[in-house]
Amino acid sequence: MIKTITESDLDTLINFIGYGNLDADIWFLGKEETISSSAMMIDRLQFEQVEDSTKALSILNLSASDFWNTSLNGNMQGLSELMLKLSGEKITGPKVLNYAMEHLGKADDASLLCFLLPLPVTRETGEDFQKIFPQYSSREEYLEEIRPLRLDFFRQLVASYHPRVIIAYGKDAWTDYKELFQDYKLNANGDFMLGWSAETVIILCDNFTSAELAGKLDELFSLIQKNSLDIRMDKRSGSDLLSKAEIARQQKEIARKAALAKRKPARKHNPADPYCVCEYCLGYETD
Questions:
Q1: Whose CA is closest to 18, among 143, 107, 139?
Q2: 228 and 197 in contact (C-beta within 8 Å)?
Q3: Which of 12, 45, 131, 204 is least buried, going by the fewest C-beta atoms within 10 A?
Q4: Rounded to whole angstroms, how far apart are CA atoms 59 and 147?
Q5: How far are the Cα atoms of 133, 264, 274 from residue 143, in angstroms, in the given order?
Q6: Could you give the CA distance from residue 50 to residue 22 in angstroms, rounded to a whole number?
Q7: Could you tell me which of 9, 11, 6 has the C-alpha nearest to residue 254?
Q8: Which helix (H) or strand (E) holds 113?
Q9: Which class for 166: exposed (0-12), middle (13-18), buried (19 or more C-beta within 10 A)?
Q10: Domain spanning 7-227 has what CATH number?
Q11: What pTM was estimated for this model as a whole?
């Protein structure tokens, strides 16, 4: 039986960022995760906004291999190989596997694994998106509503945390990435797109599992080396993750924007609800 996601549950799910460390110098940005069943959506309600992968494994009751192969849609090996290259390590099968199992997505690691769209795609067939998420009439409505909100959200995150390098992977999401990073003057660079600001280098590439990227990790590594400032690959001791107060503020802001987009604010003010989207809180009424 499919459990329906409540409004409160949805607030938690749509504010999820990813796994690892927000203060890391290297961010990997994918389009969205995949999960094996809708039941795991309920388990994910226990996640922090940025979760440590070890804790995620415990919550989901999965092995590291099963978790990463599903969640990252097969990109685990390529991400681990690139991180080893950046660490100056020799690439071997055991080292790649060890990095994926012991370092990838950890709260004190040198990278952040984040996702543009917050709700994972299920691999089960015959499931009705609207039955799980009654807040949306279809997955298309969810995408139409959440996409612009997440683009704004990630712009704010980048401006707050200033990662050295953001590698946005998956050509099927390049249109979204180009809009997200429109201020970085992205230009074609071989099979990649490259852009930068004073602090952050943006690289768009294909999925790490694709034939197009196969054999081109050295080229991607070279782009990072040539265009980015010094990258810290040691254990982090930087800023804390977002506070609970800041998470609540962001959740309320997303709820407010969603209500504004639909033009369906609540009629009555609920002072006990931190996410109240009544006409007064939305600014339709000034007193």
A1: 107
A2: no
A3: 131
A4: 27
A5: 12, 18, 25
A6: 8
A7: 11
A8: strand 111-115
A9: buried
A10: 3.40.470
A11: 0.81
Structure tokens at 97: 């596997």
29 DSSP assignment: E
Which secondary-structure segment (H or E) carries 121?
strand 121-122
pLDDT digits (tens, 9 = 90+) for 18-48: 999 999 999 999 999 998 888 888 999 999 9
Beta pairing class for 201-205 and 192-196: antiparallel
Residue type, 12: T
Residue ranges per structural domain of the chain:
7-227, 244-282
Q: List, for residues 49-98, the tens digit of each pLDDT value.
A: 999 999 999 999 999 888 888 888 889 999 999 999 998 898 999 999 99
Single-letter amino acid code for the residue at 81: E
Q: Record the tokens describing residue 262, joined without a space.
A: 């639909």
Residue 94 sits at the vertex; the CA angle it makes with 90 and 98, to the nearest 5 degrees, is 95
For residue 105, the one-letter residue type is: G
Q: What's the full length of the chain, in residues? A: 287
Q: Are strands 50-51 and 34-35 parallel, antiparallel or unpaired?
A: unpaired
Torsion, Cα of 143, 149, 155, 156 (10° steps): -150
